[in-house]
């Protein structure tokens, strides 16, 4: 079973998924078996390359699927199980919409890695974040629910297999329940939500609103011992 089949099977069974985001520039603080409390391991960050050694370290402590979540074209490793091949749909920068994808297409295709086309939508999380600086693209304000929903729907109609609503690492305000609910009603592909989610209740609220996958990174990097509390 590939990663997309894994996600769709869990969704069909009504099972929500937690993805732990690991930054390749940071030390892995989880012990063997602890990451098994999650469903997916996302690997990526705003800067820094992803080395095969980093992937090997993750595989040594968990059997969960490892999915690349690149912040730039250098963050690619064929040792991972799959790649989130993202287009920043909230941006009007052609480089983020398709330019970087063209630059990396040959290498990715030759690697044989599973590719997951994803529409990535930056939402204003209340503070400047590294992802906004990296993308050099203004996030969509949280009160622009119609625009956010239309952007997600456009992504689905363009053939994206996943939609990601991102408030940014360390966001003061996570993506609102109203936004998640509106997008969920508009699309029928898996919905990922991340940024600023720091408690089990916040995760559960996002799931109830319609998220299929919740991504948590910064909080678990500071408090790896709390992962088991989220399931």
Architecture overview:
It is a single chain. The protein has 231 residues and is of the alpha/beta class. The chain has eight helices and eight strands; from the N terminus they run αββαββαβααβαβαβα. It has helices at residues 3-12, 52-59, 94-111, 130-135, 145-157, 177-186, 200-209, 218-222; strands at 17-22, 40-43, 66-68, 82-88, 114-122, 162-166, 191-194, 213-216. Strands 1-2-3-4-5-6-7-8 form an eight-stranded parallel barrel, surrounded by six helices. The longest helix is centred in the middle third of the chain and has 18 residues, at 94-111. The two termini are 23 Å apart.
Approximately how much helix is present in the residues?
25-40%
Question: Approximately what portion of the residues adopt beta-strand conformation?
Answer: 15-25%
Secondary-structure element order, N to C: HEEHEEHEHHEHEHEH
Radius of gyration: 16 Å
Estimate the global geometry from the Cα principal axes.
globular
Question: What's the number of extended β-strand segments?
Answer: 8
* Measured distance between first and last alpha carbons: 23 Å
Could you list the spans in which at least 5 consecutive residues all have pLDDT below 50?
none
Give the strand line-up of the largest sheet.
Answer: 1-2-3-4-5-6-7-8
The main sheet comes to:
8 strands, parallel, barrel
How many helices? The count is 8
Mean pLDDT figure = 91
Please identify the structural class as seen in this structure. alpha/beta
